[in-house]
Amino acid sequence: MTPTRRLRRPWFRALAGVLVACAVLAGCGEGDTTDDGRQRMTFLNILPIESLSYAPELIADTRGFFAARGLEVRFEATQGSAPAIQTLLAGSAEISRIGDIETMIAAGNRQAPLVGIGEVIHRGTIRVISANGDPITQPAQLRGKLIGTPSEGGTSSITLDLLAASAGVPPAEVRRQVVGLAPGVFDLLTAGRVDGYMVSLDTAVLLQRTRPQAVVLDPNQSITAGSQIYATSAQTTRDPAEQDKLRRYLAAIDDAVRFIVADEATGFAGTMAAIGGKYQVPALRDPETARLALAAYVDSYTAGESLTGISPQRWQQTYGEIVGVGQLPAGLDPNRWLDTTLAPAAPS
């Protein structure tokens, strides 16, 4: 996704939020119910939907799990999590999937009435790439290093803060450089222009297959933060009709995740066939890379207490980590930003 210039004027930011909301409203102005009685709802994807990160959504669509739950779900792309949050709060869409870090900062620092209702990616999907000539294999080795990030600030940069802090390294002692997301970033590493850089799980899997000198550091070994949660507005959670749609959405995602987990036994043949039959997902061009990425996602799906529920204990730990790097004030109750009643219960 092409980075966009940061909007600095408050009125320009407000206008951008209105335009995003209007675009979503235009897509949703078809009535609340389809001819066959299914309820329409909008999911805001903060990255292109054609990604294995959204495998649960894509399988829920292509395998009919949304339809079986009485839903017709429209996918709407936004330019990152900030406009997605604005659109949710405007009441122009029902649900999005964003990071736990962004959710807490929006709710805790800006008092946004944002609520986490479910979670499907229970482990962070950001990785740190370095080269085997000067590998970064533990957080303490970040001290004094120059690390490339996709953008200034944001989730990757805060994750880097948290990772460094886990080893007692002050975030200020880790230098940063914006390097974007282009495939050629690895060449900056081999040329010695950066010591490492942050990538998504999919990219890390691809690099491990195509660049033998690549070394991958998984932040999940050191920090709790990094999960991806389903978020909505507090107002939406108070509406009984909207509650019903959210429950059905999360139930369909639960069904989809169970399908993907079971399909690991076939090498994800059913998953890749279903997604590839409708969506042009770049990772599927290399089936082996796709299988490895899906296996890593399954590890994340199954790392929680339930497939789609949020653990209040993990949520509290994440809040503590974010407070520790100065991104949130201490003394708040992060459980106020959760509604754990909408996700399916874990099997007894």
From TrEMBL:
The residues forming the signal peptide are 1-26
Highest taxon of the lineage: Bacteria
Q: Does the keyword Signal apply?
A: yes
Query: What SUPFAM superfamilies does the record tag this protein with?
Result: Periplasmic binding protein-like II (SSF53850)
InterPro entries found in the cross-reference section: NMT1/THI5, SsuA/THI5
Give a yes or no for keyword Methyltransferase in this entry.
no
Arranged from A to Z, the UniProt key words for this protein are: Signal
Q: Which residues form the SsuA/THI5-like domain?
A: 54-263
PANTHER family found in the cross-reference section: 4-AMINO-5-HYDROXYMETHYL-2-METHYLPYRIMIDINE PHOSPHATE SYNTHASE THI11-RELATED, RIBOFLAVIN-BINDING PROTEIN RIBY
Protein name (Swiss-Prot/TrEMBL): ABC transporter substrate-binding protein
Q: Give the classification, highest ranks.
A: Bacteria, Bacillati, Actinomycetota, Actinomycetes, Pseudonocardiales
